[in-house]
């Protein structure tokens, strides 16, 4: 990401000047140091912009919950929530004002930085599941790989890929591939995309059961 400037992710309970020397892309910190930016201030600028601001604030609040999931070892749940929130942001990119040139650039940059760092933070802790049912497995990672590629394809027309304003596709895919290397050999073909991360292996299991029954 040659053209993207590094920015700092603000802690939602601290002032920006307390964190200005922090590297926002470092996944080594705990959730308190890679929390999401402050919710943007709402102003009397019209119903649509007011609704978009409220929606962005809601997503940012949920990202804080995702970080808590990671800290408590609820890894699979954190990826499910992250996938849902990212899908909302991508699907409603124009409605949320993320694709336009207007509005506060700092707020948009803060939103994308917070979202991207949540992904990197979660992947840096993917092996810290507190229980087997929260463990991220190879098919989950393939599913996430598919999702990230699809989101990047959707955002490409807005120029919101691999820049400060947008999805850090390259960084996130590299994080996924590192996780895959640590679990198994990266497959060249991806499985069919399931409805959620947690259900990523449901279809294949049912098909295998049917074949065994025959």
UniProtKB/TrEMBL annotation:
It comes from the Eukaryota. Residues 1-51, 192-214 are annotated as: Disordered. Residues 1-18 have a biased composition (Basic and acidic residues). Residues 19-44 have a biased composition (Polar residues). Residues 204-214 have a biased composition (Acidic residues). This is Uncharacterized protein. It comes from Mortierella alpina.
């Amino acid at each position: 990401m040659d053209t993207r400037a590094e920015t700092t992710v603000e802690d939602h309970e601290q002032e920006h000047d307390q964190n200005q020397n922090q590297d926002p892309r470092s996944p080594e910190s705990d959730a308190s140091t890679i929390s999401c930016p402050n919710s943007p201030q709402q102003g009397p600028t019209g119903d649509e912009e007011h609704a978009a601001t409220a929606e962005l604030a809601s997503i940012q609040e949920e990202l804080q919950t995702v970080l808590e999931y990671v800290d408590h070892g609820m890894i699979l749940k954190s990826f499910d929530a992250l996938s849902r929130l990212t899908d909302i942001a991508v699907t409603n990119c124009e409605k949320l004002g993320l694709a336009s040139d207007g509005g506060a650039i700092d707020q948009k940059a803060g939103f994308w930085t917070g979202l991207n760092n949540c992904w990197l933070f979660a992947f840096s802790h993917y092996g810290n599941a507190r229980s087997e049912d929260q463990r991220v497995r190879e098919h989950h990672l393939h599913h996430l790989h598919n999702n990230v590629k699809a989101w990047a394809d959707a955002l490409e027309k807005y120029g919101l890929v691999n820049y400060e304003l947008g999805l850090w596709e390259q960084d996130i895919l590299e994080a996924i591939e590192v996780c895959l290397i640590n679990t198994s050999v990266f497959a060249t073909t991806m499985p069919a995309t399931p409805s959620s991360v947690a259900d990523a292996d449901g279809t294949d299991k049912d098909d295998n059961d049917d074949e065994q029954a025959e």
